[in-house]
Design brief:
Its EC number is 6.1.1.7. The chain has 593 residues and is α+β, with helices and mostly antiparallel strands. Helices cover 40% and strands 20% of the residues.
C-alpha cells in the first residue's frame, strides 16, 4: 500500500467516525514548554485542560490530524533503521465531555477507552487488512500512584477477543505517556503491535501532571493517540526499515546517483536531514545560534561536513529537496517553495563551508581528542559533536564523551550570559522581560524613543510594502535601532523615503502611546502584531499608538516600556537598508536631534 493511500484512508476513516480533520500545526509550537512540536496533541493541549472548547472551535469534540513533528533528541541516532528527526504523527483525539462511549456513535460527543480501542482495532484489521495473528497489545499494569488499567484489559480480551497471551501488562516507563514539556495532560496507555513492532499508542488522558510531577485528575477525560506514519508505512509495505519505504525511496536513489560510494548510514542521514531542513525552513525557522534556529543550523552543518568529507559535487542538495517537494507538496503546499530552502542552504554553505573544511583538517591533525578539544573544534569551526565523533580516528573517538563536551558548552554559555548582563557600557539592551537596562538616564530615554519608533517603523513598512512584511528580529541601542524583516528584495529609494516620512508624520501628530493587558487569545483577536509562533505567556501587554486600541495606528505584543507620546521621539532617519540573509532585509534607524 502506497504511503499516500495510507494517509488518505486514515483521515477518511476517522472523518466517518465524526472527527473533524484539522491541518497540521507549525513545527514552531505555541507550547512554551517545548522548542519544536514533538507530538500530535500539542496543538490541542488547551482543549484537554478545558481552557478552550473544541465544539466552539471545530464543531465537534472529536478531531483527527496528521501532525508534523520534530525530535531533536534523535539527531545523533539518525542513520540506523528507525530514527528520524522529522516525522509525521497520525492521531485521533477526543476532548470530552463524554458521550455514550459507544464505538458505533459517530456524533460530536467525546469518547474514551472503549471507542478509542474499537476504532484503532477496526482501522488496522478491517481497513488496512492486517492479520489478527500478527496483532498484540500492552496495557498499564499500575503502580502506587495510578491503578492497573483493568478497563482496557477487559475491552481487549472480552470485547475485541484478543487472547490473554497476546496482552502484556507493562509499567510506567512503557505504558504511561506525557506530559509534553514540563507539565500537561497525561495518562496510562495501551500500545498496539504488529509482528512485534509498536505501531500505535492510545493515550488515555485522565490526569494533569503538575510541574512538581504530582498528578491531579482532569475534569474532562480525553483521548490522544499517536501512530508514526513512517513506521506504519514500513510495516504495511513489508520492508525492514523506514528508509526502504516509498517515503524515502526516491530520495535515497537520488543521493546514490550523486554519490554512489556512500555508506547506507550516510545516505540515510542526508535523506532525513534534507527533508527535515525543508520542513523547518518553510515553517519559518532560520539558522541562528539559539533555539530552533540552532537545530536547523546544526543539521545544515552536519550535511555540509559530510558533503566535504566524502567529496560530493554537483547540485546534490537541490536534487533531493525537489524530490521531497514532489512527494509531499500536495499535502504541505509550502514545500513548493524550494527556492526558499535552497537559498538558506546556499547562505549557510557560503558562511560555513570554509570553516568546516578547516575544522576537518584540524581534526585530521589531532593526536589526541577529548570532550574539551571537541568543543574547541565546534566553537572555532562549527563542527557538530556527532560529526567529530564519527570522523575522528577510532582510537581517539573512544575518548570523546558528550557529557564532557556538554560541560564545556555550559561553561561557554555562562560566560556569554554574564557578558550580556554587563553589556551596558557596550550599549546592550535586554527586552526579553520588558525591562530596559541602561548606563544612565540619558541613555534610557534615547532607548525608549527608539523602541517606540521601531513599532511605528514596522507598521509603516507594512503600509508601504504590504502586510506580508513581518519582523524577523530587532536590536536597539542608545545610538540606533536595527530592525530585520522578512522581505525578498532590496527596497527602492522612494520606498525608504515613504516609510521614513510616515514614521515622522506619526511623530509630528504626537499620538498617545498606551498599553492594555489581556489574555493572549484576546490580544490575538485585536489584530496586534506579534512574532510568528513566539512563546508568549497566557497574559500579555498590547502596546498601541493612537487614541484607542480599536483605531490605533500601531499595535503589538510587547513588554515595554515606551515613551508616553510620539512627539517625544522628535524625528528619525533611516540610515541604511541591506540584505543579511536570503529573504531577510535589515534597516538601521537613528534619532535626529
Amino acid at each position: 500500500m502506497e504511503s499516500e493511500e495510507i494517509r488518505k484512508k486514515f483521515l477518511e476513516f476517522f472523518e466517518k467516525k465524526g472527527h473533524v480533520v484539522v491541518p497540521s500545526s507549525s513545527l514552531l509550537s505555541d507550547d512554551p514548554s517545548v522548542l519544536l512540536t514533538t507530538a500530535g496533541m500539542q496543538q490541542f493541549k488547551k482543549y484537554f485542560t478545558g481552557e478552550l472548547n473544541a465544539v466552539t472551535d471545530f464543531g465537534s469534540s472529536r478531531v483527527t490530524s496528521i501532525q508534523k513533528c520534530f525530535r531533536t533528541s534523535d539527531i545523533e541516532e539518525v542513520g540506523d533503521n528507525t530514527h528520524l528527526t522529522f516525522l509525521e504523527m497520525m492521531g485521533n483525539f477526543s476532548f470530552g465531555p463524554l458521550g455514550s462511549d459507544n464505538p458505533r456513535d459517530s456524533g460530536v460527543n467525546g469518547y474514551f477507552k472503549r471507542s478509542a480501542i474499537h476504532f484503532a482495532f477496526e482501522f488496522l484489521i478491517d481497513v488496512l487488512g492486517i492479520s489478527m495473528d500478527k496483532f498484540s497489545v500492552t496495557v498499564f499494569e499500575g503502580d502506587g500512584e495510578v491503578p492497573f488499567d483493568r478497563e482496557s484489559y477487559d475491552i481487549w480480551h472480552k470485547e475485541i477477543g484478543i487472547n490473554e497471551a497476546r496482552i502484556r501488562k507493562c509499567g510506567r516507563k512503557d505504558n504511561f505517556w506525557g506530559p509534553t514539556g514540563n507539565e500537561g495532560p497525561c495518562g496510562p496507555t495501551t500500545e498496539l503491535y504488529v509482528d512485534g513492532i509498536e505501531v500505535w499508542n492510545l493515550v488515555f488522558n485522565e490526569y494533569f501532571c503538575n510541574k512538581d510531577k504530582t498528578l491531579t485528575k482532569l475534569k474532562n477525560q480525553g483521548i490522544d493517540t499517536g501512530m508514526g506514519f513512517e513506521r506504519l508505512t514500513a510495516v504495511l509495505q513489508g520492508v525492514s526499515t523506514i528508509y526502504e519505504t516509498d517515503i524515502f525511496k526516491d530520495s535515497i536513489k537520488t543521493i546514490g546517483e550523486h554519490a554512489p560510494n556512500l555508506s547506507t548510514r550516510i545516505k540515510r542521514i542526508f535523506a532525513d536531514h534534507l527533508r527535515s531542513i525543508s520542513f523547518l525552513v518553510v515553517d519559518g525557522v532560520r539558522p541562528s545560534n539559539k533555539e530552533a534556529g540552532y537545530v536547523l543550523r546544526r543539521l545544515i552543518r552536519r550535511i555540509l561536513a559530510y558533503k566535504i568529507q566524502y567529496d560530493i559535487h554537483g547540485e546534490f542538495f537541490l536534487a533531493v529537496i525537489e524530490v521531497v517537494s514532489r512527494k509531499l507538496s500536495d499535502y504541505y503546499a509550502n514545500l513548493k517553495n524550494t527556492k526558499a530552502i535552497t537559498d538558506i542552504l546556499t547562505e549557510e554553505k557560503m558562511r560555513f563551508e570554509a570553516a568546516i573544511r578547516k575544522g576537518l583538517k584540524a581534526l585530521e591533525e589531532k593526536t589526541s581528542l577529548d570532550g574539551r578539544e571537541a568543543f574547541y573544534l565546534y566553537e572555532t569551526f562549527g563542527l557538530p559533536f556527532d560529526v567529530i565523533k564519527e570522523l575522528a580516528p577510532r582510537s581517539m573517538a573512544n575518548d570523546i564523551h558528550y557529557k564532557d563536551f556538554e560541560l564545556e558548552m555550559k561553561k561557554h554559555q555562562e560566560v556569554s550570559r554574564k557578558g550580556q548582563e554587563k553589556k551596558f557600557g557596550g550599549h546592550g539592551l535586554v527586552l526579553d522581560t520588558g525591562e530596559l537596562k541602561a548606563r544612565d538616564e540619558d541613555e534610557l530615554q534615547r532607548v525608549l524613543r527608539l523602541h517606540t519608533a521601531t513599532h511605528l517603523l514596522q507598521q509603516a513598512l507594512r503600509d508601504v510594502l504590504g502586510d506580508s512584511v513581518r519582523q524577523a528580529g530587532s536590536d536597539i541601542t542608545a545610538e540606533r535601532t536595527r530592525f530585520d524583516l522578512h522581505f525578498n528584495r532590496k527596497m527602492r529609494e522612494d520606498e525608504i523615503k515613504k516609510v521614513e516620512d510616515i514614521v515622522n508624520k506619526k511623530i509630528e501628530e504626537d499620538l498617545p502611546v498606551s498599553y492594555r493587558e489581556m489574555s493572549r487569545r484576546d490580544a490575538e483577536r485585536t489584530g496586534a502584531l506579534h512574532f510568528f509562533k513566539q512563546k508568549y505567556p497566557d497574559h500579555v501587554k498590547v502596546y498601541f499608538v493612537g487614541h484607542s486600541l480599536d483605531n490605533a495606528y500601531s499595535k503589538e505584543f510587547c513588554g515595554g516600556p515606551h515613551v508616553d507620546h510620539t512627539g517625544s521621539i522628535k524625528k528619525i532617519k533611516i540610515i541604511k537598508e541591506e540584505a543579511v540573509a536570503a529573504g531577510i532585509r535589515r534597516i538601521r534607524v537613528a534619532l535626529v536631534e
